[in-house]
Design brief:
The chain is an alpha/beta fold. The protein is built from six helices and eight strands; from the N terminus they run αββαβαββαβαβαβ. About 25% of the residues lie in helices and about 25% in strands. The longest helix has 15 residues, at about 70-85. It is globular, with a radius of gyration of 16 Å. The termini are far apart.
């Protein structure tokens, strides 16, 4: 479903210290965007920020960058992050707008990312569109450019087809599956943060699948 245009979104983002206006400016030097030099983590497709706002608050010892492509949704993420922190100063989390399929243009090997989170991404079910999946083999290989050796990808989805085919994608991209669950209610990812989408799907009786993949 398309989100309606919000005229206030861009001005509010531009006035916020949480928002990075031009991700290209930080290529190879993302640590300079934060108060401290700390382990760097990335969320790909943060939506309204329900996950990243809580994850970053729980882990002040890490720095977090959250990517999404629409300013309308990032404006809501910005508000949720500031609400979680109770402040407009959120020292270890930034959000920015960029096309995730081209993310190696704004994050480099010098940034040394330790963790990547992919939560409920578009399943792109049609065969001709599968190359746009955030877990497609070519995409996973592109993340290896900036994900450290031993770094991890945390992936959650409600979609059976996407999950099962992603297992092949991770293998093809030379990742090792460290943990896997086909039902988060029975066996959860460690420190699982239940997102808005996750609550909705679970209320409908849909099982949430998840995995942790390690960059070999």
């Amino acid at each position: 479903m398309r989100m309606r245009r919000k005229p206030w979104a861009r001005p509010e983002l531009d006035a916020s210290e949480v928002y990075i206006k031009n991700a290209h400016d930080y290529y190879g030097k993302w640590q300079s965007a934060f108060d401290k030099n700390q382990p760097l983590c990335v969320e790909l497709g943060c939506g309204k920020g329900g996950f990243i706002s809580k994850k970053a608050k729980i882990h002040p010892e890490k720095n977090f960058i959250a990517f999404d492509i629409k300013s309308e949704v990032l404006a809501l993420a910005k508000r949720n992050i500031e609400e979680e922190y109770g402040s407009t100063h959120c020292p270890n989390v930034k959000i920015t707008a960029f096309d995730i399929e081209r993310i190696p243009l704004v994050v480099s090997s010098e940034d040394e990312v330790e963790e990547i989170y992919i939560n409920f991404c578009n399943p792109w079910p049609k065969e001709k569109h599968k190359k746009h999946r955030l877990t497609y083999t070519k995409q996973l290989q592109s993340y290896k450019i900036f994900l450290k050796k031993g770094g991890k990808i945390y992936f959650k989805t409600d979609d059976d087809g996407l999950f099962n085919e992603s297992l092949d994608y991770f293998k093809e991209a030379d990742f090792e599956i460290e943990f896997i669950t086909y039902d988060m209610l029975e066996s959860s990812l460690p420190e699982n943060i239940v997102t808005e989408h996750e609550k909705m799907f679970m209320s409908e009786g849909i099982k949430i699948k998840g995995l942790i993949a390690v960059n070999k």
